[in-house]
């Protein structure tokens, strides 16, 4: 399959024209880098509207969407209940800069749902929640070091934009320009799934570590499902050395279930971070913990944190309606059932694929990811197959031509929503079968 063939007329003339305009006035034409199709080549589709499981581009082409705005849209696009509640909230005013009832109700839902937390504070993005939670951890412990894991993403917080060394605990080296080395030097990076490396780091620097932050269900670099024992080791090490354990549940929180990974693995973090689903498609983040810890935040304590639009009634209403609809519609159980069906149908297509394309479907609830060139599920960034991106670029574009949208990166996961049906899952499997055929006939 030839991509980007110049002679063929564009099938998305309006989209291409809009994107050319975007590139003039916005860096790379996008407001978040992975949207630019850098990982798969070609020109991004420009969206006009979305409803349920379908997005429509400005040329009127429809796509069955498994991106779900990168995780938030667990009910599907433009869910009628969320729309009605948001519309009603807007009519009462979009922001007051004063306490309001939806933020209190959403806080009550979060505290009731998630194990071991008593208080929550809302912010406007996952990044902001991570940044605030780490400041709180440092303020409460009086320590500076933060431990993260290679392959885990925690938003674009300066000192967390650091990559791993080669398997041993290393001083953080920034992955992004503009991150001062002195900030990155306060971060330690460990490989996932490596108990010995974590124990070594704590033996050396345990008294200086404020917090260990981890995606308990790492979902930003493939889906790297962890052994429960590994997460338990982190809990034990933190307790022993007086460090705080932070679960970044921005993706997993309220997606795998109301209690997130904490309930699934029966491990309580000191702080939990939420985003994506909790905002129901609006800009929301949150961090939560026990009252004794949270009271360190201003105005009660000396750790400063604030936000003009934090807890605004429109975003809070979107989140609240999303969580209540999930509960009422038996959402998490239905998503697990649909996820299991996807694992079976898509898994069968992958199993039948030509030997050089052998791949493995990884899944947790309604989150799924295809690990290329392997038949075992990787558990760390170091175990990822670096050539996956080459195959994926061809598969991705073939699917897009067939009207199925996966994320434009080999290392981003797919999401099911309550708007997806078994038939949608079958469509994905069928489209994937022809995409794999396209790859096998295009590669020498
Ligand atoms: C998306 C994400 C973030 C950042 O959230 P934003 O709202 O994009 O700032 C942080 N942590 C995890 C695990 C995420 O997936």
Instruction: Please give the domain count.
Output: 2
CATH fold annotation of the largest domain: Aspartate Aminotransferase, domain 2
Cα shape: globular
What small molecules does the structure contain? Answer: pyridoxal-5'-phosphate
Main sheet?
Answer: 8 strands, mixed
What do you see in this structure?
Residues 164-170 have low confidence and may be disordered. The chain has helices at residues 13-25, 80-91, 101-113, 126-141, 181-184, 195-205, 228-241, 260-265, 291-294, 313-328, 331-352, 388-401, 422-442; strands spanning 47-51, 54-57, 62-65, 119-123, 145-149, 162-163, 170-171, 173-174, 187-190, 209-214, 244-248, 271-274, 285-289, 359-364, 367-372, 404-405, 414-415. Helix 2 (80-91) packs antiparallel against helix 10 (313-328) and helix 3 crosses helix 10 (313-328). The chain has two domains: 13-78 and 330-441, Alpha-Beta Complex (Aspartate Aminotransferase, domain 1); 80-328, Type I PLP-dependent aspartate aminotransferase-like (Major domain) (Aspartate Aminotransferase, domain 2, 3-Layer(aba) Sandwich). The strands form four sheets. An eight-stranded mixed beta sheet has the order 4-13-12-11-10-5-9-7, sandwiched between helices. Strands 1-2-3-16 form a four-stranded mixed beta sheet. A three-stranded antiparallel beta sheet has the order 14-15-17. The termini are close together. It is globular. Helices cover 37% and strands 16% of the residues. It has 13 helices and 17 strands. It is α/β, with parallel strands linked by helices and 444 residues long. The structure holds pyridoxal-5'-phosphate.
């Amino acid at each position: 399959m030839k991509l980007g063939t110049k002679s063929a007329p564009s099938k998305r003339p309006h989209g291409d024209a809009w994107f050319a305009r975007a590139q003039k006035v916005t860096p790379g034409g996008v407001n978040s880098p992975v949207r630019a199709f850098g990982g798969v080549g070609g020109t991004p589709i420009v969206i006009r509207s979305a409803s349920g499981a379908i997005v429509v581009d400005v040329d009127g082409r429809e796509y069955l969407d498994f991106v779900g705005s990168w995780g938030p849209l667990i009910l599907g696009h433009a869910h009628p209940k969320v729309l009605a509640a948001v519309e009603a909230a807007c009519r009462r005013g979009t922001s007051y800069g004063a306490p309001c009832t939806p933020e209190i109700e959403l806080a009550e839902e979060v505290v009731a749902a998630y194990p071991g937390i008593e208080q929550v504070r809302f912010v406007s993005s996952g990044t902001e929640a991570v940044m605030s939670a780490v400041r709180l951890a440092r303020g409460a412990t009086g320590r500076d070091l933060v431990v993260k894991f290679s392959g885990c993403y925690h938003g674009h917080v300066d000192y967390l934009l650091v990559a791993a060394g080669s398997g041993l605990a290393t001083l953080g080296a920034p992955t992004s320009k503009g991150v001062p080395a002195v900030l990155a030097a306060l971060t330690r990076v460990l490989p996932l799934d490596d108990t010995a490396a974590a124990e070594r780091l704590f033996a050396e620097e345990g008294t200086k570590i404020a917090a260990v932050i981890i995606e308990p269900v790492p979902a930003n670099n493939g889906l790297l499902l962890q052994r429960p024992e590994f997460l338990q080791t982190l809990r034990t090490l933190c307790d022993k050395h007086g460090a705080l354990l932070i679960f970044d549940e921005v993706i997993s929180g309220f997606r795998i279930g109301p209690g997130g990974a904490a309930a699934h693995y029966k491990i309580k973090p000191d702080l939990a971070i939420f985003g994506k689903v909790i905002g129901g498609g609006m800009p929301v983040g949150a961090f939560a913990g026990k009252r004794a810890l949270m009271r360190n935040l201003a105005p009660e304590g000396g750790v400063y944190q604030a936000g003009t639009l934090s807890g605004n009634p429109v975003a809070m209403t979107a989140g609240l309606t999303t969580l209540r609809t999930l509960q009422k519609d038996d959402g998490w159980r239905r998503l697990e059932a649909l996820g299991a069906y996807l694992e079976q149908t898509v898994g069968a297509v992958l199993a039948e694929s030509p030997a050089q394309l052998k791949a493995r479907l990884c899944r947790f609830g309604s989150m799924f990811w295809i690990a290329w060139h392997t038949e075992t599920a990787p558990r760390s960034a170091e175990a990822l197959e670096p050539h996956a991106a080459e195959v994926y670029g061809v598969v991705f574009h073939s699917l897009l031509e067939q009207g199925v949208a996966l994320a434009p990166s080999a290392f981003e996961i797919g999401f099911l929503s309550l708007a997806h049906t078994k038939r949608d899952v079958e469509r994905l499997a069928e489209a994937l079968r022809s995409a794999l055929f396209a790859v096998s006939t295009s590669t020498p």
